[in-house]
Every structure is written in C-alpha cells, then in structure tokens.
Design brief:
Layout lengths: L6 H25 L3 H20 L3 H25 L1 E3 L2 E7 L2 E3 L1 H18 L8 H20 L3 H5 L2 H10 L4 H22 L2 H11 L10 H13 L10 H4 L11 H34 L3 H25 L17 H20 L5
Antiparallel strand pairs: 1-2, 2-3
Helix pairs in contact: 1-2, 1-12, 2-14, 3-4, 3-5, 4-5, 4-13, 4-14, 5-7, 7-13, 10-12, 12-13, 12-14, 13-14
C-alpha cells in the first residue's frame, strides 16, 4: 500500500495535460514553434518528476528542504546577473533550446521551507517573532522576483503567506491589522509603484469600454472567444479568434479562452471539473496527512494552485486585470509544467506516507 499514488489526483492531471496537448496541437499551424511536440515532451518529463518526488518520505523532504530553499534563492540572485530579459523581465535562464524560470522553482521551495519550519515549531499559535520569521522566509524570494521585475509571479506567493498565517492560528486582531496595512500598501503601490500601463489594466476592469483597442484589447478578444464557443464550441482549429490571431497569448495566459472557443461550455466544464478534482484531492491529502509537515505543505500548495487557477480564469473573463499568471498544467511552458508536477509529487509523497506506519 505504501507504493500507492492517489489515482484521482493522477486522473485530474492526465485530463488537464491531455486537454492542453489537444489545444496546442490545434494551435500549431497558427503560432508555429512545434508547440504540441514540446509540450508533450515537457509533460512526459513532468510526470516522471512527479513519480520521482513522490518516492521521498516526508522525513527526507524535510531534511532536503533547507538546501533546496537556499539553492532556489541562489538561482534567483544569479538570474538577475546572467538571466535573459523577456517582456521587460530578467527572469529566465536559457541553455540552448531550453529555458526555465527559477521563480517557479523558488515558489515550491518556499512552500516547503515554510512547512518545514512550521513543523519544527513547538508553539501552537503564532507570536510576533514567528510571524517575522515567516515573513522573512517568504519575503526573500518575493523581493528578488520583484527586482526582475515580475509582479504576476510575485503575487502567487501571497496565498502561501495567507494560508500559513491561517494554519498558524493568527488571531482576529492581527488579521485586521494585516488588512489595514494591505490597504495602505495598495494605495502606496498605486501612487508610486505601478507603471501607467498597469494602472490602465486595472481601470479597464472597472470600465471595460475605457480603452477597447489598448489596455482592454486582450480581455475584449478573450470574452468574444469564450462567448463564440457557445455549447459545444466551434471545433479545434476552427475558432475565428484563434485562427485569425485576434486573441493574444492564446497558448499561454489566455489559453482557456482559446479552449472555450474550440470546445464550448461542454469542454470548459470538463476542464474545470478536472481542476476541481485536483484541488479536492490536495485538500483530502492535507486532511489525511500523518504529520504537521504533510498537512502544512499540502495546504500551502493547494492554496497557491487555487489562487493561480482563480486569478487566471478571472483574468480571461475580465473580472481581474491582466497579470501574466498562467493556468497550471494547461498553459504552454516547460518550467511551469515540470515545477507544477514536482509540486504535485510532494503532495503525492504526503499521500503515500499516510499508508506507512509511523
């Protein structure tokens, strides 16, 4: 029994990866670049990594976590010096035809480090000192990512912090204080931190007709694509928004809009059901974990993936501004796919550990 991997989690992953490969195959003739072949290779590697990581016990993961976290921070520093700039962000290592984003690896390392630190605590509730330690553990990688700068990826660390504070039993008055500080920081960011194009994206969400051919163009085309899919879709490779390339970033940030146009309400429901199943199994693993590390790391991973899925879907339907946050396992991209599979490997390791006698 100790060799078992959660079959329901694997089913959800297979459905999402198969849907992604199908969508990218239909986009090959539109975008080029051998999207399908590359994504299939990344998916195979990702599943191998998932299986490999799932073989580790929770004890082994805890022991390896400090070195993993330190290595991830070193990569974030190195990418600022020798990384390649893409879309104004110096956040990529490029080795021949292969490129990867260390901020993806650092996010997993951060979640594991927070869980390992939390597992070693004796206190049942957070103190001021423990909150400071937590903020440092999460703040270090976030600060390095903001220097790149990559606000979208930095935001995906937020649910890790919130979930860690909630699991730690943060009192209500502290949540109120955090809310007040958050509002003040948001005001300061709007005044001094955000660039004009970022402000335009936020204002466009509040007023969709504000700039339909500028800041609002992406979301406008996304909504058209989703609406044109209707019940069963226009068919793979037949959607006008995708084929005529009106829909931007249709293989990455807005791939769900392309999928909805091609497969309609039916296909969208299948994909969303797979994500719901995935998140449910992660939650089930957290509740069934036999130790504090397993519970915490599964909960943090579940919170981050749920946040990333919700933000991407809200972005493509115009409920949130465009942030560059991709859809896990579905958007095109090797480093994101493999890292997400490694993340699910950690969850699978926790699930497997529940069958092992303590």
């Amino acid at each position: 029994m100790e060799n078992r991997i959660d079959p329901w989690l694997l089913l959800a992953v297979f459905v999402i990866l198969a849907s992604s490969a199908t969508m990218l195959a239909s986009l090959n003739h539109v975008i080029g670049g051998h999207l399908f072949a590359r994504q299939v290779l990344w998916a195979v590697l990702g599943m191998f990594v998932l299986w490999l990581v799932s073989r580790f016990s929770s004890v082994a993961l805890v022991r390896l976590t400090p070195a993993f976290y330190g290595g991830a921070l070193a990569l974030l520093v190195a990418v600022l010096v020798i990384g390649q700039v893409r879309s104004g962000t110096r956040g990529w290592f490029v080795i021949g035809p292969v490129s990867f984003q260390p901020s993806e690896i650092a996010r997993l390392a951060t979640a594991m480090m927070v869980a390992a630190w939390y597992a070693g605590r004796k206190e049942t509730r957070f103190t001021a000192g423990s909150i400071l330690v937590l903020m440092v553990l999460i703040g270090l990688p976030v600060a390095l990512i903001l220097v790149q700068p990559d606000l979208g990826v930095a935001l995906t660390y937020l649910p890790i912090a919130v979930a860690a504070l909630w699991i730690g039993g943060l009192p209500a008055r502290a949540w109120i204080a955090i809310g007040v500080v958050g509002i003040l920081l948001a005001g300061a960011a709007w005044t001094w931190g955000l660039k004009p194009y970022q402000k335009d994206r936020i204002l466009t969400v509040l007023e969709p007709a504000r700039d339909p051919f500028g800041a609002g163009y992406q979301v406008r085309q996304s909504k058209i694509a989703i609406g044109s899919g209707m019940v069963v879709g226009q068919g793979l490779g037949r959607g006008s928004q995708s084929v005529l390339r009106f829909l931007p970033a249709q293989h990455t940030d807005f791939i769900f809009a392309a999928w909805a146009e091609a497969t309609g309400f039916a296909g969208s429901t299948v994909l969303l059901a797979a994500y719901a199943l995935l998140l449910w199994r992660i939650l089930r693993t957290a509740l069934a974990a036999k130790d504090r590390f397993g519970l915490t790391v599964s909960a943090l991973i579940g919170a981050w993936l749920a946040f990333q899925i919700l933000v991407n879907l809200s972005m493509v339907v115009g409920l949130l501004p465009t942030t560059g946050i991709t859809l896990p396992l579905f958007s095109y991209g090797g480093s994101s796919l493999v890292t997400t599979c490694a993340t699910l490997g950690v969850v699978s390791a926790v699930w497997r550990d529940r069958f092992v006698n303590a």
